[in-house]
Design goal:
The protein has 12 helices and no strands. The protein is an all-alpha fold. It has one domain. The two termini are about 30 Å apart.
């Protein structure tokens, strides 16, 4: 891989993984304009591990709280609010695991056409805009919220939907505040990204030639740094900016994809 390709793909993965703008749409555009071939499974694993490290680092206090609460529960001290939130994140992850297993061939095959990604980018972008106009102020996430958001996350299997975009859309439609929607979406990304990285790692078995370790380390590092900065900025600004900038961006991006498809 060329250095320009490594840097570009790593930054795109880090930035678009958590913004509601679809990473798959951007990677297709970059591949088209850059004329680059497939970056390979080892690099995919590296950048995903980079983004996973970023979100874990940002929510390190929450994760530490989950661990502490889990140990208290095992010790028979009962379930506190943090342990209950951990259970909600876990329960919300189950639907996408099942759907991903059942639809794996479709996701990796026909659904990756530019036209499909373009329609998803625009359609779910409009839905995000509608949800943002109807957002509430609630900061309490109940079990029904968690399960419905988890079901909505299965739609992210369609390239162009955006995992963070569809989970925030569902949360906003359920009356949650923008910050609460973003926080739960990012927490939900931890088991999802970890699972995807694990599956991709398993696919590496039998790969004839691994990528250079230096390429992988730089890719993971750049993806992680850009993802951490992106998460921090998004949560700090989302109540003021709303989702409109991302909706407009998605519409323009979808139009660009349609242009490429013609």
């Amino acid at each position: 891989m060329e250095w320009l390709q490594i840097i570009t793909l790593a930054l795109i993965q880090g930035i678009t993984e958590f913004l509601p703008i679809s990473s798959s749409a951007h990677l297709i555009l970059v591949a088209q304009f850059g004329g680059w071939g497939d970056q390979g499974l080892p690099f995919d694993v590296a950048v995903h591990l980079g983004t996973l490290s970023a979100v874990c680092l940002y929510f390190r206090q929450d994760l530490a709280g989950y661990l502490s609460s889990g140990m208290k529960f095992v010790a028979g001290r009962g379930a506190d609010s943090q342990f209950e939130e951990l259970l909600k994140v876990s329960a919300a992850t189950v639907p996408v695991v099942i759907a991903g297993f059942l639809l794996k061939e479709d996701v990796e095959g026909d659904w990756r056409s530019i036209t499909t990604i373009a329609w998803a980018t625009i359609g779910f972008g409009i839905l995000l805009g509608i949800a943002d106009r109807r957002h509430g102020t609630s900061t309490t996430l109940g079990w029904s919220h968690a399960l419905l958001i988890g079901l909505a996350q299965t739609l992210a299997l369609v390239p162009g939907t955006s995992r963070s975009g569809i989970t925030m859309t569902a949360a906003l439609l359920l009356g949650l505040s923008r910050t609460t929607a973003a926080r739960f979406s990012f927490l939900l990304s931890i088991p999802t990204i970890a699972g995807a990285a694990l599956l991709t790692t398993l696919d590496l078995i039998g790969e004839p030639e691994p990528a250079r370790w230096l390429d992988l380390c730089i890719g993971a590092g750049l993806a992680g740094i850009s993802a951490y900065l992106c998460i921090s900025a998004f949560i700090a600004l989302v109540e003021r900016t709303g989702m409109l900038p991302y909706v407009i961006y998605r519409l323009l991006l979808g139009a660009g994809l349609f242009y490429l498809a013609t």
